[in-house]
Design a protein that fits this description.
There is one protein chain. 14% of the residues lie in helices and 37% in strands. It has helices at 2-6, 10-22, and strands at residues 34-42, 57-58, 63-68, 71-77, 83-87, 91-97, 110-114, 119-121, 124-127. Strands 1, 2, 5, 8 and 9 form a five-stranded mixed β-sheet that branches. It has a four-stranded antiparallel β-sheet with strand order 4-3-6-7, with no helix packed on it. Strand 3 and strand 4 form a beta hairpin.
Length: 131
């Protein structure tokens, strides 16, 4: 008797399982225009940089804004490796750290020109202010 009740439901269960197994997450489309790159900070410590020492390091988890003229048009936060990507239409922009109050060195503005049809590669090195 149990077999009689389960058999009609078997095709439905197989169809549902096939839908779940074949469902793949859709990757986010890469923006067509904008800015992408890595933000670093240097020098990494005061005093002379010795041979073999890194003079800069990625700047992780730091908030930046993108301005066009006096208007803020976008913002982003660097990832753990200092990488970022922000979609923007073609134009001239400036990138700077969101918090400028407590920065001793140079944290922007950094000029960037975004061209139509491509992501503009812009690696930025912020000045730590250490000497």
């Amino acid at each position: 008797m149990k077999d009689i009740l389960i058999l009609p439901l078997l095709p439905l269960a197989v169809a549902l399982f096939a839908c779940v197994v074949s469902a793949e997450p859709t990757p986010s489309p890469k923006p067509e225009t904008g800015i992408e790159g890595v933000i670093t900070i240097s020098p990494t410590h005061g005093g002379p940089i010795r041979e073999g020492e890194d003079s800069s390091r990625p700047l992780p988890d730091t908030a930046f804004v993108v301005r066009q003229g006096d208007a803020e048009v976008a913002s982003f936060t660097t990832d753990t490796q200092g990488r970022f990507q922000v979609a923007l239409p073609p134009g001239d922009y400036q990138v700077l750290a969101r918090d400028q109050k407590h920065k001793f060195g140079g944290w922007g503005p950094f000029p960037v020109k975004v061209e139509a049809g491509k992501m503009t590669k812009k690696d930025i090195d912020c000045d730590s202010g250490m000497r």
